[in-house]
Amino acid sequence: MDFKQIVKDVLLTEAKELEKAATLVSFDIEKAIDLIINSKGKLIVTGVGKSGLVGTKIAATLASTGTSSFFLHPTEAMHGDLGMVGKEDIVLGISYSGESDELVQILPHLKRFNIPLIAMARNPESTLAKYADVFININVEKEGCPLDAAPMSSTTLTMAMGDALAVCLMKKRNFKKEDFASFHPGGSLGKKLFVKVDDLLRKDNLPVVSRETKLKDAILVMSEGRLGSVIIEDENKKVIALLSDGDLRRALMNDNFSMDCKVEEIATKNPKRLNNKELLASDALQIIEDYKIQLLIVTDENDKLVGVLHIHDLIEAGIK
């Protein structure tokens, strides 16, 4: 049995249904968008079975892209949860047949409260479609299922229609990546746009020595600091140099190397530093990568040490 061919056939079948639907967009999308945009309430998605599962995903996508939305199961709605639907809300009902008993039962109650209804179904003459203010056709000619029974192409199309609706709403609202990140503060984009250097800064027990410190003593401080470097300050507590393990290895190659020399003699003078701890951590990472360093020193306007930012801290925090 050629399973690779089976996979190919399923993907192509579903892709063809999506492509066909893209050429037959005849529903009043402008009206659907206006209903949602002008609503002062929420967009409530409802459906049962596979339609309900897809509806849950659609509601989540809408909620994360600027449209206040949640999923409501029709059965729960008939047993008290219908009270979650406010008079200013809109309902997106999903049923491939348009005749799902649980969903059809709540339609008269929605109509009684004049709740606008957007419907996704295959049949424009179905009960769901007839109740709807806007009907979105999700009919497919062939399911991915070899028995043409289990919903596959139809659920794929339904989910894609939900995505298309979400994108239309994003465009209408001029929804930007900063807005998306505000709904996902823990995600990679949220971290990139909101986490600042100060949030990840190491400020305590830093490996700092004076310029008069002997190298052998500075190495001890470096080992205890566990940053692979030691920061060197002058008599006014201003940062003037940085001794890295790379500096130390290079110094060891010199014939006149001495452990009793002053640490400043082999350190990197005027190391790369940052005097803005409010800078985005993602921008600080770019500086670290551009200069091929591991440790970024953060100072105040007087060149006095505020803290350090290590590349490992950025990586562990998920900054990319």
From TrEMBL:
- State whether keyword Repeat applies: yes
**BP terms from Gene Ontology:** carbohydrate derivative metabolic process; carbohydrate metabolic process
Keywords of the record, alphabetical order, are: CBS domain, Metal-binding, Repeat, Zinc
Q: Which residue ranges does the record assign to the SIS domain?
A: 32-175
Q: Which SMART domains match?
A: CBS
| Residues annotated as binding Zn(2+) | H73
Q: In this protein, which residues make up the domain named CBS?
A: 201-259, 267-320
Q: GO: which molecular function terms?
A: arabinose-5-phosphate isomerase activity; carbohydrate derivative binding; metal ion binding
Residues annotated as coiled-coil are: none
Cross-referenced Pfam families: CBS, SIS
The family database entries (InterPro entries) matched by this protein are listed as:
CBS_dom, CBS_dom_sf, GutQ/KpsF_isomerases, KdsD/KpsF-type, SIS_dom, SIS_dom_sf, SIS_Kpsf
In chain numbering, where does the site feature Catalytically relevant fall? K50, E102, E143, H184
Q: Gene3D superfamilies from the xrefs?
A: CBS-domain, Glucose-6-phosphate isomerase like protein, domain 1
Q: Record's NCBIfam families?
A: kpsF (TIGR00393)
Query: Hey, which family's this protein in?
Result: Belongs to the SIS family. GutQ/KpsF subfamily.
The name this protein goes by in its record: KpsF/GutQ family sugar-phosphate isomerase
